[in-house]
Predict the structure of Nitroreductase domain-containing protein.
Amino acid sequence: MNVEDAIRSRRAIRSYKDKEISEGKLEEIIDAVRMAPSASNKQDWRFVFVTEGEKKEKLFEKANVQDFVKDAPVIVAGVTTDPEVEMTCGVPAGVVDLSIALDHLTLKAAEEGLGTCWIATFDQEKTKEVLEIPNEYRVIEIMTLGYPAEPLKREDKDRKELEKIMFYNNFSESK
Ligand SMILES: Cc1cc2nc3c(=O)[nH]c(=O)nc-3n(C[C@H](O)[C@H](O)[C@H](O)COP(=O)(O)O)c2cc1C
């Protein structure tokens, strides 16, 4: 699968087959994540792969993740270990770095026939508690991972038209 196919076939998957992902496959995926760029190449990131049913259940009960999240074979928490770092542009580096890394995850997963869903609905503090993440770190996003109930395929996406989002030389409010 080429990058274009991965981009076009990736979509938010909220229903998964009850099928385990091999450790070898998980390692291939995290190796692609590892290749992501980060500000000053600091790589201030950690990724917790939750595979145990009991932990997933705790995330559901305590950290308020949605129902389907606990039913995914794997839940990945993307953590920045330096949440206070701001880049010169005033944007937190950890948020950008983790977003790039997790997007690598979604596309590598798509190449492997695996589905993902970005998850922002979770309680920050309780998630850290359940996953034993030090308090000074920050969970930027969590993500589900698993074999999708329906196979991924290239399909149309509900997206804004190009002319509404892209401008040459000057910003312009889109109509
Ligand atoms: C930063 C971010 C947070 C999201 N949080 C959630 C979430 O908490 N729960 C959920 O079901 N979907 C969540 N989504 C999935 C989006 O709803 C979905 O990606 C979007 O509708 C586009 O659809 P697509 O991923 O199928 O292209 C999130 C997506 C992103 C990028």
Remarks:
- The first helix runs from residue 3 to 9.
- The domain at 3-165 is CATH 3.40.109.10 (NADH Oxidase).
